Give the backbone structure.
Amino acid sequence: MRTPARWRLGAVTVVGLGALVTGSLPGGAARAQEADAALTYACRLPSGTSQDVGVRVRGTFPAEGTAGRPVQPGRVTATVTIPKAAVPEVGALGGASVVGAAELGVSVRQNGEAAAAAWPGLTTPATPVADGADLVLAASGDVPPVTPAGTGDLTFIAGELTLELSPRDAHGGVPRDAKAPISVGCEPSGEHVLATVPVLRGPDTGTAPAAPAPPKTAPPETGKRAAAEAPGGTPAECGKFTGPTDDWYSGCVYLSGFSNVTKLKGAAILNDPEFGRPALTNLVYSLTDTGASVRQRFVSPLRSRSTFLTFGFMPTTATMEMTQRPLKPGEDYGTFEAVSDMQTGVQSVNAHMRMSIRISDVSVNGTPLDVGENCRTATDADIVLKGQMTSVLEGGTLDGSFAIPRFTGCGAGEDLGPLFNGTVSGPGNLLRVSLGATCIPDADISCPPVVPAPARTAPPPAG
């Protein structure tokens, strides 16, 4: 049985689909498409009643794409209208207003083949809650690109929507009597196209490029992990992140590391290239009088697969997915602040980020355990890391400790939340992150980026 805070999925009714507007700029250059889709989702409230919820999805898409190169949608806004009949249940969270973090699932189709994608990190500002009136939440954010393998129409189709609501007081803070956030899950019926981007040619030849062969790597030595070049050279997504002003420079980096789970007396590998393609981190940086200021965001979730001995004797294997969340609604996703010692030149680095943790594909003693598709932390893990290095752009090691929040939505036939809360959730989990050198594609510095070998021991003093 799912937890009461989860709004169950239901049937939907389509109330409209806005037109996709295309056109040309002076001189014949194509401009972006404007997508505007109005949908209705049926959601089950915490009380168990079902309620239709209107969702309007708006965003910009390129007029056309190139095979083998990223198709980057513009900023997306999902406006969720919770009808007044359901507002009292939201108001029961406590506080004068709410903030929300939304994730919109998207199916991307080309030439009869479809792939699932996700647009996480859509956030809402603090929105007043008033009885007797609809609650309109506008969740906005940047979304990751999609790289088509060949030519043909690339179609984006709206999918499942999840929304997490948290209370705020009149000053934007968390009320003293606030209740735990509510996780909302809804799914549309049928296929509802957001945009279609024609992919007309390959990057050089006018045809679709052949799919690249997987990189050949020697098997790692037992107990050792070496640095590895990024698959395929410099990723096309590298540097596709803009700063607050024009004097910020863009680049990308890979990180790796270990995350301890104190209760299980073990560690999970972060961004393990042996499990799957490692997640890239895009960043922008600005040099300051005292060092450097960096803003970063993962292009995709960090995934890894690890085995622990539950209760000290039972081998349990699971896939862990960490999805980055904004530090606060409408604010940066991750920050690195580097301050240089004026005598030694060594930089003291402080990093801050928030991550939602999802567990899937679990087996206990070799027997699969169905935890469902939404077994995740009820709140985000707040992570602060510190370290010293010669330069934050040249890489180094950061350390910290964080609390793993309680889990919700675990279990397909029974509530497995208490199992994970008892064996995984809790404070004092050590985290060690190794940063590679920053690839700056515009200047071809440190490119392609390298996945660093995760540091197992405390780093020596920089310099």
